[in-house]
Amino acid sequence: MPSRLPVQDIFAGLVTSVGTAIRYWFHYTLVAFAWLGVVPLTACRIYKCLFTGSVSSLLTLPLDMLSTENLLADCLQGCFVVTCTLCAFISLVWLREQIIHGGAPQWLEHNLQAAGNMAAQANEAPAAAAGPGGEPPPQAEAAPAEHPPEEEEDEEEEERAADDPEQQEEAADDLEADNEEEEEEDEEAGAEDAEANNGGQDDMNWNALEWDRAAEELTWERMLGLDGSLVFLEHVFWVVSLNTLFILVFAFCPYHIGHFSVVGLGFEEYVQASHFEGLITTIVGYILLAMTLILCHGLAALVRFQRSRRLLGVCYIVVKVSLLVVVEIGVFPLICGWWLDICSLEMFDASLKDRELSFKSAPGTTMFLHWLVGMVYVFYFASFILLLREVLRPGVLWFLRNLNDPDFNPVQEMIHLPIYRHLRRFILSVVVFGSIVLLMLWLPIRMIKLILPSFLPYNVMLYSDAPVSELSLELLLLQVVLPALLEQGHTRQWLKGLVRAWTVTAGYLLDLHSYLLGDQEENEANQQAANNNNNQPPRNNNNNLNAIPVVGEGLHAAHQAILHQGGPVGFQPYHRPLRFPFRIGLLIALMCITLLVASLVCLTLPVFAGRWLMSFWTGSSKIHELYTAACGLYVCWLSIRGITLLLAWMPQGRRVILLKVQEWSLMIVKSVVVAVLVAGVIPLLLGLLFQLVIVAPLRVQLDQTPLFYPWQDWALGVLHAKIIAAITLMGPQWWLKTVIEQVYANGIRNIDLHFIIRKLAAPVISVLLLSLSVPYVIAFGITPLLGVTPEMCVLVQRRIYPFLLMVLVLLGILTFQVRQFKRLYEHIKNDKYLVGQRLVNYERNASRVSGAMPDFPPQE
């Protein structure tokens, strides 16, 4: 192998690589154009064409497809449409799997089971007539006893036939003719029965959900065209076709059904006043479509059209589940969010008129924010219910669904339960959630305004003149303060302890300890009995096997039979005291009073503590209550944490307490030093560098002076540092990732101050200081010495940071290209002179050293 490649070899390799790159570039450009351009643009144009409401739009659709107007906006809207159709397709497939594995509703399978029983009886009748093993039926056995004379005559005729040969031949011919006639009649009857049975079985076995599982071996690379083939063009055509079909079936038809109904009923003005005409009209169309489907299903059941009945039933289930999902995930949180806003108007000195104006100005944003608040409220309410289940006796919260139950499947409930039960559950949920909001928000606000008139309203106005300072601090609060409070504050354990203490107190006061927490003695005895039963060898109970249905009846039926064999799950017996309903009423009253007091404390104590602490820093100026509440919550958390630690150390003696205080004091000092460096200096330098490189050159003109706000720069730097740390942990292994992982593994208790300063803080701070100081020295120290004009000095001072960033990026790109060229050079050399793993041409020095070795010809 030569030490240097000839120029023609390098040029030929470059031309080959460039040709391959161009070919791949054209292919991937075609892929991107097809999936990111043709598919969304086609979906958007077809969507607009269908919802324009004119015949001319259908005629001009081919020309609209080729139009270049609003390409970017139509592509973005088309991506949203394609996403919706893809989600609809995935939901249909998932719902199909739910119906197959969980079983169809009873009303859908009832007629099929009845038809199956009739067909089974028809199939069992010939077998019963033949008897087991082909034996004759009992009637055939009793016949000889009833008619003995006829049997004797037959025997005499047989004896005569045995003596006369001619008579034997005639009898044989007659017997063959009779047998042939009987066989023909049996075949005709069997064919008719088989056709009838096959027809019935086809009607029963036909399943509208058994779709063909096509393209099982299709991969994402082959589907999207990333494997280099052009098969993806066929997939693009099918995706466009499916998008059109889904838009037509799931959007166009329901919308126009609802539109005609709304116009016919005269509700068009009310629907237009809602600012969500399309959504409401489509939902009305789906409701009418569901009613039509269930009516047609009933008619198909009356006329015994099994296939039509099955298909209509499945379509009704799809529409029903879709509507229930919209109600559960969309409507219910929206109602909760609006009710929370209405009950908290006095807390922010607002009125319904203000909410009406905000809704008219931005209806979509207003509805989304209220929905988001409602979802957060529902989530935390469900989390609190799960915490209550850990404390209370199983069976106390029987009226609430257990989300941790492995057998709980909301989709199966939507499929099987009737509409009136879902409607009743929805009304009860609205009443319960609304009552809790009244109890824990509206009533405490009224009491605070009566007792402390000057405490409310909260100050939530963005009044600061500093650009994006409020937004940055809110992001800092949501990204740093609250996660630290929730993750490191043992809040859940404290809340669980408070709930347990309140439950024990209320149980002993009202003699409901057995009802709320159960009897400890009984629980221990039951646990021992259960352990003894588990240690015993299993018994073969054949009686229980009869309760389990066969496989043919479906997995869902077997699962339900196994589930209900052992009686109700999640229930413990309790002692029922005298006047039990009266005691339950007192328990509910005590619970309401406790929730009211807790809400009063949560609404006043953190804000009051935060205002008092912030007053030492900001004076009499008003601050956003989000910051005062966060500061107060953190102070309350530190106080509670200190009290709990002291209570845990007190039984161990004074010496242990002093050792713990010394240990924790040292740990706090180390944590403060690390916090100042990692959470103070590094974010401040990072935020200031971001301002100088990105924000100031884009926002401030050359004839203006940029202003820097250290507090704002630090807040934005915290967010940037958090993002950089997350990207570093997700990236490849290098020294910064190793150091961050080591610091995270050590934790606060085993914090290593020397390691953090030497390995993390010092390198990062050095790089940031160099990035800030070197351009500053060049712009303000070296440039004026060169004798340039003041305008040029200002230009250099303002543009040196982004210029140096551009230089660094170009150097990185050049370094990467040099490495790629070296790899290409080695690749060309190996392709030309390397055969497998054996060198064809050797160096001179290598041949001299190995001259004693015999030369073997290369193996082909």
TrEMBL record:
- Top-rank taxon of the source lineage equals Eukaryota
Q: Where in the cell is it found?
A: Membrane
Q: Where is this region: Disordered?
A: 119-205, 523-543
Q: How is it placed in the membrane, per its record?
A: Multi-pass membrane protein
**EC code(s) of this entry:** 2.3.2.27
Q: Which InterPro entries match?
A: MARCHF6-like_C
Know the name of this protein?
A: RING-type E3 ubiquitin transferase
> From which lineage does this chain's organism come?
Eukaryota, Metazoa, Chordata, Craniata, Vertebrata
Catalysed reactions listed for this entry: S-ubiquitinyl-[E2 ubiquitin-conjugating enzyme]-L-cysteine + [acceptor protein]-L-lysine = [E2 ubiquitin-conjugating enzyme]-L-cysteine + N(6)-ubiquitinyl-[acceptor protein]-L-lysine
Organism whose genome encodes this protein: Coilia grayii
Annotated Low complexity bias: 119-130, 525-543
Q: Which keywords are on file for this protein? A: Membrane, Transferase, Transmembrane, Transmembrane helix, Ubl conjugation pathway
**Primary site of residence:** membrane
Tell me where in this chain the E3 ubiquitin-protein ligase MARCHF6-like C-terminal domain is found.
656-829
